[in-house]
Amino acid sequence: VIIMILNKNLESALSKHEVLKIIIGLNNFNLNDIIFQAKAAEIGGATYIDIASNINIINELKQISTLPLCVSSIDPDELLACFKAGVDILEVGNFDIFYRKGIMLSANNVLEIAKDIMCQAPLACISVTIPHTLCLWDQICLAKQLEFLGVDIIQTEGFNSKFKTDSYAVNSLRKSSSALSATYVLLKNSKIPIISASGINPLSAAIAISYGASAIGIGSFLLEFNDLIDRSIIIQSIVQSMHQNLTMDIKTKNLNIYSVFDHSNISNMNT
After folding, report:
1. What is the pTM of this model?
2. Cβ atoms < 10 Å from Cβ of 18
3. Cα dist. 220→1, 25, 141, 195 in Å?
4. Which of 80, 103, 152, 192 has its CA 20 to 30 A from that of 165?
């Protein structure tokens, strides 16, 4: 796969399976919160950040952060405008807002959007989210079509149950389990780099990397940490565990999740 990534650090991290994407919020337009999250991501050593497809937000972040930027949309014209504004990755995604309205995107819908943006921005790095609403066989077929088309990266999406509880752990487990299943199956059936995302936390991130994912996308887990230092420390811990390959020893089945919890000043980790 030839990856048209302009940012060399991002390309290198992707090839080493060491990419950590911080999902700031694709419908988050609160500039103060976005800047706070971007600073924590940069201090912690994240690879890049995923933000709303908004030109004003892009311009503000480019002034205060050196991290590569990714935006998500299903509107090719909107993605093209963001590419011209200087973002590094264009992602066909952010399907949640449609799910809430009862609208499901078909594999053909996603494929046509990808084709459109690739025609308009042939030098852009293109990532495509595989809808969780598709059965695994259809996800595999779509991944193969996207690989043939020349898409650079695909991303998993976790199942969003309408039967949500007040427990972050339970909701996260539901989403991450389907995201991990998709990660495993897609990696077995395609050669395109995969971002394992949706409900991912340090434990499920370790599993995804052991499966062979090139990148991890983490968002909701970090909402537990409202202090800049605490958040940057947990991000740094996840990055270090990916660099040191401490997440899982396949032969011994020894899952070393404690390496990401080495800092005693971080509290409320078991919520």
Report:
1. 0.82
2. 18
3. 30, 9, 29, 16
4. 103
Task: For residue 215, give the nearest of 45, 20, 25 by alpha carbon.
Answer: 20
| Count of positions (residues) in the chain | 271
The mean pLDDT value of the chain amounts to 82
C-alpha to C-alpha distance for 48 and 214, rounded to whole angstroms? 13
CA nearest neighbour of 49 among 21, 11, 29: 21
What three-state secondary structure class fits 155? strand
pLDDT digits (tens, 9 = 90+) for 32-45: 999 999 999 999 99
**Residue 173: CA atoms inside 13 Å, Cβ hemisphere, count?**
7
Kind plus residue range of the DSSP H or E element containing 80: helix 76-84
Dist. CA 153–CA 80, nearest whole Å: 17
**CB within 8 A of 7, min separation 6: which ones?**
48, 68, 88
Banded model confidence at residue 9, pLDDT cuts 50, 70, 90: low
Residue in the block written with tokens 């052991």: 210
pLDDT digit string (tens) for 182-210?
999 999 999 999 999 988 888 888 888 88
Can you name the residues that pair with 128 across neighbouring β-strands?
A: 92, 154
* Cα first-last separation, the chain: 40
Closest CA to 191 of 4, 7, 15: 15
